[in-house]
């Protein structure tokens, strides 16, 4: 401005004033695996992003949905050892007596003593059809990307159509849904899948 007086913060000051978001460290541990490596002299090392909770060396963890229990020997980030990993940390951790063949991308480790993760035989989800040629009815089996898992899930039952904005039911047990529709659907995974409720663990409750 050539004339007058400008008030307020400069851009850099405004950015510096932003407070970091609160991390969900109080929730149970959830860490979807992105990859698994075998490192000579160390052993099996899964990698993933801590979504909720805290991971520490010595923790007894269970991998869902395979239900494999083991102990965390060490945790590291960017080749630096960590005493604890918190949400937002992309970490590798070494586990005892587990073969690389037993673990895979999409598995979710959690603390075996604090609300451990489990596989879901089926789950209910809100589905919005953005763009699909033709109609979708019971039996349709798309591949879902839920956290790091990539698994085909069958539309076992389309329970109701709902309004996209309000979430209110508009039709019970519709025969089919099409582009632009939102519906509550019961889904059955073709392979074991770890999925959580969106209210409790948002990163593991959307796809």
UniProtKB/TrEMBL annotation:
Keyword Transmembrane: no
GO cellular component, one term: cytoplasm
Signal peptide extent: none
Assigned keywords, A-Z: Cytoplasm, Elongation factor, GTP-binding, Nucleotide-binding, Phosphoprotein, Protein biosynthesis
Transmembrane segments: none
Superkingdom, taxonomy of origin: Eukaryota
Residue ranges of domain GTP-eEF1A C-terminal in the record: 123-207
CDD domains: EF1_alpha_II (cd03693), EF1_alpha_III (cd03705)
GO MF terms held by the record: GTP binding; translation elongation factor activity
Presence of the UniProt keyword Amino-acid biosynthesis in the record: no
Domain Translation elongation factor EFTu-like, first and last residues per copy: 43-108
InterPro entries to which the protein is assigned, alphabetical: EFTu-like_2, GTP-eEF1A_C, Transl_B-barrel_sf, Transl_elong_EF1A/Init_IF2_C
Compartment(s) of residence: Cytoplasm
Protein family per UniProt: Belongs to the TRAFAC class translation factor GTPase superfamily. Classic translation factor GTPase family. EF-Tu/EF-1A subfamily.
Primary role: This protein promotes the GTP-dependent binding of aminoacyl-tRNA to the A-site of ribosomes during protein biosynthesis.
PANTHER family: ELONGATION FACTOR 1 ALPHA, TR-TYPE G DOMAIN-CONTAINING PROTEIN
Name listed for the protein in its UniProt record: Elongation factor 1-alpha
Originating organism: Chelis sp. 'Palearctia' CTW-2013
Source organism phylogeny: Eukaryota, Metazoa, Ecdysozoa, Arthropoda, Hexapoda
